[in-house]
């Protein structure tokens, strides 16, 4: 019985989030467009997340340089540190870690805000006033997240590579020309493009999962807390799963 109820619950959740995605996708293609709400969400998701992304990316790049240097040093192949840092950042760590940060910072805020609106009947009030809650609440967040996550990922890539360059060249004494030459030799434009494609999907996942958890939040403050936690966990798990399948497709 428990297994059956779990399967039914999961199937219902997949169906609801699929319908939410389809409505958000259609809503993003036709008016009315709530430009003010869209701009507000791009600011919250993008600009407000930049400090955390900068901190994450810089130290990630430096850690990559340190770890790879000590391994390559044993093989007298230190010049390949740049290639490792560049490939790791643009292919995997840049998009995945940025997606997780957006989920933890912006996704949790989306779920909490919409969940609070649900339990205080504000969503029902929007319907009464003639607004479509999906268009007014979900679509701006969906568009803002899918637009800003690739931009944040590009920033993380640049800063992460810069952190690796700082450690490799100025701390470990690797020749800067060799560092950059090996990175250019191994990191192709397709590597960068594939990472940005991943981040586009990750941004959509964060917005949909967070809005879904907020819309279906149960009553009470505890329900909002559970919805916020569920949004971060669901977004993170889906990002990891999506990263695996996108890696198989893109590479």
Q: What kind of sheet is the major sheet?
A: none
Helix content: over 70%
- Class per helix and strand makeup: mainly alpha
Cα end-to-end separation: 42 Å
Over all CA atoms, what is the radius of gyration? 21 Å
Uncertain spans, ≥5 residues at pLDDT below 50? none
**Strand residues, percent:** under 5%
Would you count the extended β strands for me? 0
Q: Please, what is the average pLDDT?
A: 87
The coarse overall form would be: elongated
Number of domains: 1
Instruction: Give, in order, the helices and strands.
Output: HHHHHHHHH
Number of DSSP helical runs:
9
Summarize the structure.
The chain is mainly alpha-helical and 251 residues long. The protein contains 9 helices and no strands.
């Amino acid at each position: 019985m428990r297994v059956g109820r779990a399967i039914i619950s999961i199937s219902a959740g997949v169906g609801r989030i699929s319908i939410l995605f389809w409505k958000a996708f259609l809503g993003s293609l036709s008016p009315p467009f709530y430009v003010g709400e869209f701009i507000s969400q791009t600011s919250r998701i993008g600009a407000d997340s930049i400090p955390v992304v900068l901190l994450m990316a810089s130290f990630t790049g430096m850690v990559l340089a340190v770890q790879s240097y000590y391994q390559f040093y044993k093989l007298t192949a230190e010049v390949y540190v740049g290639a490792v840092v560049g490939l790791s950042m643009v292919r995997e760590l840049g998009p995945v870690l940025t997606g997780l940060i957006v989920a933890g910072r912006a996704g949790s805020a989306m779920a909490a805000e919409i969940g609070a609106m649900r339990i205080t009947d504000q969503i029902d009030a929007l319907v009464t006033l003639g607004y479509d809650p999906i268009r007014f609440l979900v679509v701006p967040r969906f568009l803002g997240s899918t637009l800003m996550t690739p931009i944040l990922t590009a920033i993380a890539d640049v800063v992460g590579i810069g952190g690796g360059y700082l450690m490799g060249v100025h701390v470990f004494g690797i020749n800067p020309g060799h560092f950059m030459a090996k990175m250019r030799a191994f990191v192709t434009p397709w590597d960068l493009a594939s990472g940005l494609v991943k981040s586009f999907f990750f941004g959509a996942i964060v917005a949909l999962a967070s809005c879904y958890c907020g819309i279906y939040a149960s009553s009470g403050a505890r329900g909002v807390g559970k919805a916020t936690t569920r949004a971060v966990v669901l977004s993170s798990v889906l990002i990891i799963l999506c990263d695996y399948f996108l890696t198989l497709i893109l590479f």
